[in-house]
Write a structure and sequence with these properties.
TIM Barrel; alpha/beta; 337 residues; globular; 9 helices; 35% helix; 12 strands
């Protein structure tokens, strides 16, 4: 686990609570077949051993604070090319591996790209009424329900409500599970350069999404909302979905979507950069990261803010808070279309 240890040590030392996607194939397991019994038990052991290792390293309570999730966007073929039946087998192997390590570990999914897609619906059916591959029992545990709903904030909430209403209507036994949107971004394709990602528009998107979710979901309906988070912790050029920007050849080339080995969206054959290393890589804090840092100043108690109707000022909003120490913090954003 040494390579992963170094990365997770850094995150845990900085008090990061993880959404841990159990995706990717370790070297030596490239030919794994999730229809093969021996392979499925091997995957279950791998997940179990991973959880035990990090419980020993960081403590059981740290791991219990993490959100273990299925493979990323399994309804997109390039992320999950193995078919639906094998995905359910894979889900059971992940679930049972974590349960064997610690029954208190949290596991859910499916983190679909298309909301209540066929993959999403099949997993709900499997967890409610299907047969657990390993135990033979009816039903499989699911501790939270996740999707990746990318849109502007008003439309994003509508997309999330469609997913929740489907679950509430078709699977009422799951209506109390936390709903998670852990890639709540404006648009898919983190490595594609867009001009609006460079400055304050994208920065204002983040507090608006938080504000509208507070007001239209947490304050208004009984939807058990769990996590709203972004998939923007990347390093790349100004126009990409990144916190930190840099200047490298090809980074801002919209026609090639940047050079993949330098942080772009696609692998491109580009000449090596012969500049000294100090000239190749600069990390510059973008406005979106500044905003996310400032949001840490908001207090624990949130207050309602009155003013013109949303229809009159759909691009503007305010988050008003007070900390336990009595300090007031006010966030005002403006995100025009």
């Amino acid at each position: 686990w040494s390579a992963l240890d170094r990365k997770l040590d850094l995150l845990v030392a900085n008090r990061q609570t993880l959404i841990f996607e159990l995706m990717g194939t370790p070297r030596g397991m490239e030919g794994i077949d999730f229809a093969d019994d021996d392979h499925l038990h091997a995957w279950k052991r791998l997940v179990r051993d991973l959880a035990r290792h990090y419980a020993d390293r960081y403590g059981a309570e740290t791991l219990r604070s993490w959100w273990f999730e299925t493979s990323n966007e399994p309804d997109l073929w390039h992320f999950w090319p193995h078919g639906l039946v094998k995905f359910l087998n894979y889900y059971d192997a992940c679930s049972e591996g974590l349960l064997e390590a610690d029954p208190a570990l949290r596991f859910g999914g499916p983190g679909t790209a298309r909301g209540a897609s066929d993959t999403f619906k099949l997993l709900m059916e499997h967890c409610a009424h299907g047969r657990n591959y390993f135990t033979g029992e009816k039903g499989v545990r699911i501790d939270f329900i996740s999707t990746h709903r990318k849109n502007t904030p008003y439309e994003m909430i509508e997309d999330e409500l469609k997913v929740w209403r489907y679950v509430e209507h078709d699977f009422p036994q799951f209506r109390g599970l936390p709903i998670v949107n852990d890639e709540a971004d404006p648009i898919a394709g983190w490595g594609i350069p867009y001009f609006w990602r460079t400055g304050p528009w994208y920065a204002a998107f983040v507090p608006q999404a938080i504000d509208l979710h507070n007001r239209f979901i947490l304050d208004s309906i009984a939807m058990p909302y769990g996590i709203l988070s972004n998939d923007n912790g990347f390093m790349g050029s100004w126009g990409k979905r990144t916190h930190l920007a840099r200047f490298l050849p090809g980074d801002n080339d919209a026609s090639t979507r940047g050079a993949s080995r330098r942080g772009g969206a696609r692998v491109m054959e580009v000449a090596a950069d012969d500049r000294p290393p100090v000239e190749q890589f600069f990390l510059i804090k973008k406005p979106v990261l500044t905003v996310m840092s400032l949001l840490e100043l908001l207090g624990e108690t949130r207050y309602p803010v009155s003013g013109p109707a949303d229809s009159l000022r759909p691009a503007m909003g305010t988050i008003a808070t007070r900390s336990e120490g009595g300090a007031f913090a006010l966030c005002v954003y403006h995100r025009p279309e």
